[in-house]
């Protein structure tokens, strides 16, 4: 049975409404976000935002940097105000889940409810449902898919080559956004709504069908010949990534080429995997300082793209500290 569970006091009065089942909300309540008073310290606080919201020709409203942001600078760290269990959309009749969505929104504290009401909703079904559908991020917790609304982060526009990256911390229910490259004052801060590895036509089709706009970012506006070259690089990136799944037999030059292709494509966040492969292959070849160099970049980019608790980068930390102590050291020379 799906119900709405609301807390006015969550996140120091920001509040939250969760549409899910009683057993699932009981599981969520065990998370530090609910059980540890210090878990959300410094979250949802933005005394001096590094941006200003303004009207942008042909793009609606957007966030413009008001100071120089460097890679790793935090832009947002916020908890959701709404979380909706993905199964509710299939298990409930339309009238039922619309009523529950309205209840979830109405149960929010006045200030938070006002933030939700200020969000744009692509006109489709219902004012509340439209705002959720347009602005929600898909999350997975304990193998359950939720759709969560973060009003502040929802103000970020899409770009197929964004200058900011985001991840969701499951323990604190916090959505982080950081600069993934240098952002100068006057530049719009953007994220990607889709997998940026897709070629032009697939990107355009997905953005149009899900968000109702035709992307006009710099990548999607390239001359046809330049766009074709970009699509070819993206295809090559996929083929190399597939080959590097067997990194133990791959040449270092392959990982280096992948790094170069990512740089050409201005795909800043996904580069972490290329550096990860380069560090491991360098380790196998006994290239001490190369291993450290690649591992350090893999760690930095991985933290910004996958989060602070991602276990896959623990090995990179060891490689960055002392490559010779890892099992991969000199493996190809034995």
UniProtKB/TrEMBL annotation:
Which InterPro entries does the record associate with it?
A: SET_dom (IPR001214), SET_dom_sf (IPR046341), SET_domain_protein (IPR053185)
TM ranges: none
Q: In terms of domain of life, where is this protein from?
A: Eukaryota
CDD domains, A to Z: SET_SMYD
Q: Which residues form the SET domain?
A: 49-194
Q: What is the protein's given name?
A: SET domain-containing protein
